[in-house]
Amino acid sequence: MRKSVSKKVQTGFTLIEMVVVIVILGILAAVAIPRFIDQAKNARISAIHGLAGSMTSAMTNAHAQYLIDSNNVATSVAAATSVSLDGASVGMANGYPTATGISSALPVTGFAADTTTAAPSAVFTVTNAPTTATACSVTYTPAAAAGATATVVIADAAC
């Protein structure tokens, strides 16, 4: 006489297999979440650097327009107090935009411009930066004298 042995067919997952999968997913989440949080910081730093590039370009365009306008009139270079860039009047001093002039030359959103606290400079900060304003900013300093150039300084240490 033969004994019939029936095989039991396994369906689904065991409790141990499910626990192992959950533990692996937890470890992956613990590693991935800080990387996603860090992306917000990288985005703010990129925005600051992009603004600095735009500011340098606007400053250069305004200076070029200033030189063109000064060569087309009979007055001296120092006499021009503003230039027109894309229909916006940009205040000028010593051949470069003033702090309020650079603000009108840069119609950007997502940044707060302060032209009074650090006068004669203009400090542009990211509006959603979680730290102090000056730690994530671009500072524009107009030319101090004729023949000098304006400067753009990036502060992104604590964005």
Topology:
Blueprint: H1 15-71, E1 82-85, E2 88-93, E3 96-97, H2 99-105, E4 111-114, E5 122-126, E6 137-141, E7 151-155
Antiparallel strand pairs: 1-2, 2-3, 4-5, 5-6, 6-7
Description of the molecule:
- The protein is built from two helices and seven strands; from the N terminus they run αβββαββββ.
- It is of the alpha+beta class.
- The chain has one domain.
Domain module count: 1
Task: Tell me how many strands there are.
Answer: 7
User: What fraction of residues sit in β-strands?
Assistant: 15-25%
Q: Quick check: average pLDDT?
A: 82
What summary fits the major beta sheet? 4 strands, antiparallel
- Strands of the widest sheet, in order across it, are 4-5-6-7
Summary of the model, kept short:
By secondary structure, the protein is an alpha+beta fold.
What are the key terms here?
7 strands; alpha+beta; single chain; 3-stranded antiparallel β-sheet; 2 helices; 159 residues
